[in-house]
Design brief:
174 residues; disordered C terminus; globular
């Protein structure tokens, strides 16, 4: 870990980075993932993710261009959340069946579709507290679980969620 210094994505102009057209395109995609999701990653994940880039571990080669099994990070056999994010950005999700299994075996109860790292700790309100919101859609409460609801492409599993309606006229209770 890098102590109290925060990790930053390297400049795309850095001469140490891979420089082919395919590499530059992938680096832009990795940077986009960083910008959109790194606020939900723990510092170790951020550091590892960034460290793989100047080391050339994200370089596009003839061997890894289309098949993840040709990627040096696949061959290393060390599945971490940072490696998962690199694979997820680099390849179609359908090609990542084995890495999804590795991820699930390493991190219990992980949702591979979530962009939040398994070690990410977000602030949690005390159970039983609720913020009042003007717009119900902008009010998401965590109520003590560590799940990430930021990428709910399938809303069919709402078992853990309570949708409370509050009557405007409290005389209904009298």
């Amino acid at each position: 870990m890098r102590g109290s210094q925060s990790t930053e994505f390297p400049s795309l102009d850095d001469e140490r980075l891979p420089s082919t057209a395919a590499d530059k395109e992938l680096l832009k995609e990795l940077q986009l993932a960083w910008e959109r999701h790194s606020d939900k990653w723990d510092e170790e994940t951020k550091s590892e993710f960034v460290d793989h880039i100047p080391k050339g571990h994200t370089k596009v080669t003839k061997t890894n261009r289309t098949q993840p099994s040709g990627h040096r990070l696949w061959k290393s056999g060390r599945m971490t959340f940072a490696v998962w994010i690199i694979f997820r950005v680099t390849y179609d999700y359908d090609k990542l069946i084995k890495p999804r299994g590795w991820l699930r075996s390493r991190y219990r109860n992980i949702d591979p579709q979530s962009w939040a790292s398994p070690n990410y700790k977000k602030s949690v309100k005390s159970k039983g507290t609720k913020e009042l919101c003007d717009n119900k859609g902008n009010c998401e409460d965590n109520y003590g679980d560590d799940s990430d609801d930021s990428d709910d492409s399938d809303d069919s599993d709402d078992q853990g969620r309570i949708d409370a309606s509050y009557p405007e006229d409290k005389t209904d209770f009298l």
